[in-house]
Amino acid sequence: MSLINSKVNDFVVRFANVNGSGSASANFLFTKAIFRMGIFVTPKNIFPSNIQGLPTWYEVRISEKGYLGRREGIDLMVCVNPQSMASDVAAVKPGGYFLYDSSKNLHDQYIRDDIHYIAIPLMEMCNHAFTDPRQRQLFKNIIYVGALSALFDIEFQMLENLLAEQFKGKEKLIPANIKALNLGIEWVHQNHNYPLDIRVERRDLIGNKIMIDGNAACGLGAVYAGASVAAWYPITPSTSVVEAFASFCDSYRVDPFTGKKNVAIVQAEDELSAIGMVIGANWNGARSFTSTSGPGLSLMNEFLGLAYFAEVPAVLIDVQRTGPSTGMPTRTQQSDILLAAYASHGDTKHVLLFPSTPKECFELTVDAFDLADELQTPVILMTDLDLGMNDHISESLEWDDDRVYQKGKVLDAKALEKIDKFGRYLDIDGDGIAYRTYPATHPSKGSFFTRGSSRDEYATYTEDSAAYKRNVDRLIKKWNTAKNKVPLPQLYQDKNVSSIGMLFFGTSMFSAQEAMDLLKDQGLVVDAIRLRAFPFNQTVLDFIDVHERVFVIEQNRDAQMKSLLTIELQIDPKKLISVLNYDGMPITADTIINSMKESTFVASKIKKIA
Amino acid sequence: MSYIRPKFRHPELPKNALGYSVDYYEGALSTLCAGCGHDSISAGVVQACFEMNIEPHRLAKLSGIGCSSKTPAYFLSNSHGFNSVHGRMPSVATGANLANRDLIYFGVSGDGDTASIGMGQFVHVIRRNINMIYIVMNNGCYGLTKGQDSATADNGSKNKTGVMNAYESIDLASLAIELGATFVAQSFSGDKAQLVPLIKAGMQHPGFAFINVISPCVTFNNNVGSTKSYDYVRQHIEATSTVDFVPEMPEITTTYESGGIQKIGMHDGSSVHLHKIAQDWNPLDRQSAMNAVMVSKKNNEILTGLLFMDPNAKDLHHLLKTNETPLNLLSQSTLCPGSEMLKHINEDFR
Lengths: 610, 350
Description:
The structure holds two protein chains of two kinds. Chain A is an alpha/beta fold. Chain A has three domains: 7-199, Pyruvate-ferredoxin oxidoreductase, PFOR, domain III (Pyruvate-ferredoxin Oxidoreductase, domain 3), CATH 3.40.920; 212-394, Rossmann fold; 490-609, Rossmann fold (3-Layer(aba) Sandwich), CATH 3.40.50.920. Chain A is 39% helix and 19% strand. In chain A, the strands form five sheets. In chain A, strands 11-10-12-13-15-14-21 form a seven-stranded mixed beta sheet, sandwiched between helices. A six-stranded mixed beta sheet of chain A has the order 3-4-2-5-6-7. In chain A, helix 16 links the parallel strand 19 and strand 20 (527-531). Chain B is globular, with a radius of gyration of 21 Å. Chain B is built from twelve helices and 13 strands. The longest helix of chain B has 15 residues, at 37-51. Chain B has helices at residues 37-51, 67-70, 89-99, 111-115, 119-128, 172-179, 192-204, 230-236, 286-298, 316-320, 332-335, 338-348; strands spanning 59-63, 80-83, 104-110, 132-138, 141-142, 148-149, 183-188, 208-214, 237-239, 241-246, 261-265, 271-276, 302-309. By secondary structure, chain B is α/β, with parallel strands linked by helices. At the A-B interface, strand 9, helix 7, strand 11, helix 9 and helix 10 of A face strand 2, helix 3, helix 5, helix 10 and helix 11 of B. Strand 17 of chain A pairs parallel with strand 2 (80-83) of chain B.
């Protein structure tokens, strides 16, 4: 048996559970207790498209250095699911630990001589301590959390506090939970060495950070952005965006005097209808959004083309999952990029925003509404399952009370009075953005006919080639205006120091940053840029231009962002080297480094330095 | 183009209570075929809005794609219009209505736009009872693509090339009644006397008002053997009643008098007067309405008039309990919880 080094605040625990067995709240209790001890922790829910019965995993990485990406290699496996035991045993790193329910003997085939076994008779203990069948089921999970708290040195007070918060108003449920925790703790105290070499120690690394999932942050962003109409169709992994929005609206969008709601939320019959409602509401001057995932985005294509051409604002939150078709609906990917960028037939392009953290989910959702109104076009927030559905440690959310909603060029009755003849599609300011009006603004001025077919500057139907061309050329002018309105990319250096650049976006950020650190340790310094929006700002082209090679890190098979960069910036594709991860699991730093080292360009550099 | 409309207007055209003459309610020149039933319906819309003293800018007209969906350009040029995508007008109208509950929403669709590509949205807009009027200009064929049968073409009806339609037709009026629509009427584009009051009542109805208007396609479906030709419809039409829409009548009554006039009170005090013809039909009873439609269908008759109405309809805003103030008028201070509140929200995630 090999020994592993003492690893304080640096290990990975994976819980192997049965879906629907109540493990989620117990596992979250474990994660949150470590978070409360001031230590960086990042959980990933690896769940099936199923409500009850199939294997589900919850993976927690604890990182002193604050790495929030996923890491391969399980240091301790908590296995309470016989269905997945064979692969769960195999997944443990040599020298790691396998905690299992020893109410039944472990079959010989599960015995490895290079890992440690921690036997706890969870079922027996539960059956002995509790009489209610539901409690017997649920408290198995709480007992292993208790056991882990002893093995990892988690402060009991943190667990107690969390239970008190969880059961506020239902206090009579607390003692049974405490009892279950203590059962696990006592079992470890009497039967095992503790704490383990892998354990936690209180730190003060968290500050005022929060732990929140990206979908909740998007939903809250929509509240702060003033969205008053939401239309949606349930689809994993985007469902919780509107659910969170609705829940926040219950608190913040009820008129205190009348009890009436300052919001309308409609579950549509499909995604086509959802985006149609969003377009209708935005056309009529209410901020409106929908959220969906790949299959829904496919369905929304026709309407997105209409909104682009008719110049109606719309906000769409795309929580990406694996495709094509239904793909793996509960696994993550960044594979809707090209579909979103060029959604719909004809010459169309859409503004995309790429958040990397819950804080950015909040902020970019608010920005999306401003941009949609200012540019009079759909804006798609490109998040993914990993960011949307997993809890992330994030900077706290902030709101500037001086911020004023940017509703763009909308004429009111007073402004219309001053105009001789209103032209909906006249480019008065030369930026490609025309002035619009909402219905009911003025009795005799400002009305116009919105349509997807060709029209002239006064919104009159025409099939005149010159008028059509003027219109679509103006849309490109507007597109160029957008390049300087969208959020700028994040540059990781004031001055470029390397001939190698890394380019990434969205949830690849965590592992990309970790990879940069690890490469630095190996003597290779790389420059980096994180995209936050499409269309690309000049900064992106400048970054690519000054580097010999740029590694484009993305989570899809076909290098969609590389394609987009190549097409839109006229870059030699050979200059961009793809680092791809598309198995449905969040990308890891190891994947990035190994992939980069396959390139002779990097290999030679590292060798040279070595 | 149907007709050339002279720009000249008689200086003493009658004016309505708002001081507008009827030409104020007109739109651009129609580009539909001369004699198209749709143009008659557009004229009916113009007349109804004129007589109802509608402020055109307080009305939004929406449509999908097709000949019928072009018509909103041909009436009410002082209203905002939205010619959306094929079969999806109901969702756009729903969103628009949610944004501002105070306007009149005037939806125009066709039989292809509603009964085929838009069937899903049609069904659900009824289910949600959006406060809007929804007119289907129903000619049983696809005009803009040159005469293919639509899903409302009757079984056995012959198209222009003499081919008989082998499929069952979708009857939109009975479907709407069955789905729970709160106002269902049927009419004929050639019967303006019946159509105009129906449009008025539909606009006033506090929920989803559906009017299926048989509107013959002169170019592709006006041939012998077609059950949607002018001749066929004129020969097979049967009216449930003659209809009068009486605005702002203080009297509200739903008492039914056999053979007499039935007044149905609306919430704003206006009322619909029905001069009832069919003896065994009660417009306030869904089952009776359904039965009347079925019986006339069996007799190869097209039953027209107001078929069913629930004057106490509750629209989507009632179901969602939205504020009386239109959502698009809410200020940032009402919508945005502000920074102090966000500090508290952050606490919940620590």
